[in-house]
């Protein structure tokens, strides 16, 4: 696939940015998919919590596509936005870009995912959220 884009998205700010370290890699030297999934879940929870105005729980990974490998030392930028809202649930789209060796002109979109979160109260019961504006 090798989808190279000249820069990171300029119309929005990353939700989180992180550099994977050697402990995050597998025997082949690529970053574990599970590490990327956990970072995606963290990034996705940020707009979900903001929209719900409180605690949320992850209830589904609706879609997860690994487009390119991530390497130790890549600067990974996670962009997350709520794209659909139900009565108690929110679906969040997360896109991940890797700046190869921190070079601003060498960026690849490496992952795209949709995660569903449910707003919960202090007893962990689902609670309503506002519609998407």
UniProtKB/TrEMBL annotation:
Q: Which residues form the HotDog ACOT-type domain?
A: 10-123
Keywords on record:
Hydrolase
Xref: InterPro entries:
Cytosol_ACT, HOTDOG_ACOT, HotDog_dom_sf, Thioestr_dom
What domain of life?
Bacteria
- Pfam name, any one: 4HBT
Protein family (similarity comment) = Belongs to the acyl coenzyme A hydrolase family.
Q: What is the designated name of this protein?
A: Acyl-CoA thioesterase
Natural source organism: Limnobacter humi
């Amino acid at each position: 696939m090798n989808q190279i884009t000249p820069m990171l998205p300029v119309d929005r700010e990353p939700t989180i940015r992180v550099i994977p370290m050697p402990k995050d890699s597998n025997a082949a030297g690529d970053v574990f998919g599970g590490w990327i999934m956990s970072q995606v879940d963290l990034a996705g929870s940020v707009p979900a919590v903001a929209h719900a105005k409180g605690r949320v729980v992850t209830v589904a990974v609706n879609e997860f596509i690994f487009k390119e490998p991530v390497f130790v030392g890549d600067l990974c930028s996670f962009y997350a936005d709520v794209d659909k809202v139900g009565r108690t649930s929110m679906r969040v789209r997360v896109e991940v870009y890797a700046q190869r060796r921190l070079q601003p002109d060498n960026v690849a979109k490496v992952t795209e995912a949709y995660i569903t979160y449910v707003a919960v109260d202090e007893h962990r019961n689902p609670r309503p959220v506002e519609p998407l504006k």
